[in-house]
UniProtKB/TrEMBL annotation:
Coiled coil: none annotated. It comes from Knoellia flava. This is Methyltransferase small domain-containing protein. InterPro entries: SAM-dependent_MTases_sf (IPR029063), Small_mtfrase_dom (IPR007848). Residues 58-81 are annotated as: Disordered. One of its GO terms (molecular function) is methyltransferase activity. Residues 65-74 have a biased composition (Basic and acidic residues). Pfam families: MTS (PF05175). Residues 19-69 form the Methyltransferase small domain.
């Protein structure tokens, strides 16, 4: 693994997961109307955000051992206007 700046910048996920599969998975999970969503090994939190965005009232918590991934997550999420 490299610590070089920008090493992961071209990726959406820190795993082999396409946008279409992530959307399908997030929709299936959100259909269960969760109030809380826990993502262990969340990486940048992209999948967690997709689930919480689709589940009204749900709160999410992402846990990862790599602090660099946790730091990147908020920078990847568009800010509400």
């Amino acid at each position: 693994m490299s610590d070089a700046p920008g090493f992961y910048e071209h990726l959406t996920f820190n795993a082999p997961l396409s946008d279409a599969r992530a959307d399908a998975l997030a929709s299936r999970l959100a259909a269960r109307s969760p109030s809380d969503v826990l993502d262990l090994g969340c990486g940048w939190g992209e999948l967690l955000v997709r689930v919480v965005d689709r589940a009204p009232g749900a709160q999410g918590l992402g846990v990862d051992t790599d602090e660099r991934h946790l730091d990147r997550g908020p920078r990847c999420r568009p800010r509400p206007r």
